Amino acid sequence: MYILRVQNVKKNYRSTEVLSNINMNIKKGDIYGFLGENGAGKSTLFKILLDLIPEDSGVLERFGNEDKKNMDYFFKQTGSIIEHPYFYDTLSGRHNLNIHAKYMGFYSKNENTSRIEEVLAQVGLEYIDERAVKTYSLGMKQRLALARALLTKPQFLILDEPFNGLDPKGVVEIRNLLLNLNKVHGTTILISSHILSEIAILATTIGVIKNGIIIKEVPMDVVRNEEQQKIELEIDDSSKAAYLLEEELGIHGFKIVSDYTIEIYDITVDRGRLTKTMVLNGVNVNNIAIQSGTLEDYFLNLT
């Protein structure tokens, strides 16, 4: 069963096309890691999924219902964090959650109180007092946003940069919470993050968007099999070496890691020819070796 299917969705802002023929398929129980540079269209698509802005064309199927059918069910079964979460800043975190519970149709006062305390504990905010949200740190606001997303026990989470503002300990705590929700409760998660190492741990599937187009949608197991290796080139002049890679050897899939190191993502490159080209053009090669790859390497190679 698919929780979400997106087919040929387009979105224009004035004369600029920001989403072009978007296709996305998220199965029940997936953790779908959505990757892309700033401005690639991730947040725009998330807003369309949540019906915050309209698509110009295309078909969206939510929980098996096409277009706008049974949207009440979709909203009750979906929790979200989109861009910068907003709250009633002069009210407490608990008061904000209580307002959200009532808005979403949770009217029982006792049930509200119990569930609010439960989600605050899940995100590590059980200690908060009644001070106003405007006094919270960025990390605390992010935790509160996740608590709000979890409040109605949703089947589906849409999380736009949920690790924003969290310290390393907080990142680990929220990662483990998301894994637990997925494995124990079967929660389906669509998540974007620039912390690709976290996506590599969490995701069962990834989608990569570039310039408003999803250029890859692939199971994470395939990524691990495809991108297990890279060539690490250690030289004395990375700028000159990069020029030679592109102009002399026609190699474009690489990253300058430092002044003395370049990573090349195509391990089929003739290393003998590579070394010879460098040396003949005055670049000393100190080492060339095959190394294990990462999701970051895979993403950079695609984009």
Overview of this structure, please?
The chain has 303 residues and is of the alpha/beta class. It has two domains: 2-224, Rossmann fold, CATH 3.40.50; 229-293, Alpha-Beta Plaits. Helices cover 37% and strands 29% of the residues. The protein has helices at residues 42-49, 71-76, 93-103, 109-122, 138-150, 168-185, 196-202, 220-226, 238-247, 271-280, 295-302, and strands at residues 2-13, 16-27, 31-35, 57-62, 65-66, 78-81, 156-160, 188-192, 205-210, 213-219, 229-235, 254-258, 261-264, 285-292. The strands form three sheets. The protein has a six-stranded mixed sheet with strand order 6-7-8-3-9-10, sandwiched between helices. A four-stranded antiparallel sheet has the order 2-1-4-5, with helices on one face. A hairpin with a 2-residue loop joins strand 9 (205-210) and strand 10. Helix 3 crosses helix 4 (109-122) and helix 4 (109-122) crosses helix 5. It is elongated and about 75 Å long.
- Note the run of SSEs as H and E: EEEHEEHEHHHEHEHEEHEHEEHEH
Q: Spans of 5+ residues with little confidence (pLDDT < 50)?
A: none
Q: Give the overall average pLDDT.
A: 90
Percent strand equals 25-35%
Please give the share of residues in helix.
25-40%
Number of domains: 2
**What is the assigned CATH homologous superfamily of the largest domain?**
P-loop containing nucleotide triphosphate hydrolases
Number of helices: 11
The global form is elongated
